[in-house]
């Protein structure tokens, strides 16, 4: 009888230990999958060259995550490495696509990246390096804002709430810090308080604001602003626009009209920046397409990358809209706009 009790007790203890170990492992796995990512796009404070960074960051499964931000605790790179552990089979490619989808690259960018990696991967190669290099190929070279001599007009477009006005404020601060003279045009005459909000940023950055009463013609504001910017010898005029127009035709008409009046006033649009909220993910990209169809967008500003967005959205935006990412917004402060750096972004996305 005592033996029965002893053996039964021993079995019960072993079962409890096994259960506890399974639970801990599952919890660790789930922790790694949670989308607590920081795109970190372009705002790395570690400007190590890509190769060195790749060696340094090539993630082992237990490598601790960098503090703060939107990155996975267990980086994408660690998962890719694990996936290729036994070589590359059909299952590996499906698994890679799943990983990319989970990182929010979206269906098109995920499928395209898998095709690229598949074409370049050779047995024995480091799959993380191949994925990294293909990400850089998708993102293309980093491109700064194109500013020439004379007055550079920068049109800023995007849906309401994406962060246009805030981005203009941050950009004005950045440009004035670089020693440029900046003017602002409050051509979003529709949204209540848009002009006041821009006024606060103008004061903060030392830029000159041209505005009219709410409901005024946005083209007329842009016209006045070009004249005033010329008179003040401004280097840059940042033009805020309304984001309420989701349907293509009125949007096209209004943006085309603003562009025409800028030209009539004697200037050319140097850049059209589309501001996109990273947290709206794939939906935001679909909305943004209406803008790329309505006006020739030359660069993207991806805002709110300091929130809960997953890093892959950067690749999805680049791939689906076909326009380079110029800046990323990493907060609401004047200094929270960083130039996008593709290599640093890929390092961070893969290292976690
Ligand atoms: P607009 O309607 O496109 O002009 O959008 P706003 O500039 O008014 O921005 C909408 C909200 O997003 C505001 O509360 C901003 O402070 C906030 N915002 C803009 N950019 C960022 C960013 O990069 N990070 C964070 N956390 N908030 C941002």
Task: Kindly describe this structure.
It is elongated and about 95 Å long. Strands 3-2-4-1-5-6-7-8 form an 8-stranded mixed sheet, sandwiched between helices. It has 352 residues and is α/β, with parallel strands linked by helices. The longest helix has 32 residues, at 2-33. It is built from 13 helices and 8 strands. Helix 3 packs antiparallel against helix 4 (90-102) and helix 9 (218-231) packs parallel to helix 10 (248-264). Bound molecules: guanosine-5'-diphosphate (GDP). Guanosine-5'-diphosphate is lined by residues 158, 160-166, 243, 303-304, 306-307, 329-332, 336.
Rounded to the nearest angstrom, the radius of gyration is: 25 Å
> What topology, given as strand order, has the largest sheet?
3-2-4-1-5-6-7-8
Number of strands: 8
Mean pLDDT: 81
Q: How would a textbook summarize the main sheet?
A: 8 strands, mixed
Which hetero ligands occur in this complex?
guanosine-5'-diphosphate
What fraction of residues sit in β-strands?
5-15%
What is the helical fraction, as a range of percent? Answer: 40-55%
- For the record, give the distance between the C-alpha atoms at the N and C termini, rounded to a whole number: 56 Å
The SS-based structural class is alpha/beta
Number of helices: 13
Order of helices and strands: HHHHHHEHEHEHEHEHEHEEH
Low-confidence stretches: 22-73
Q: Label the overall shape.
A: elongated
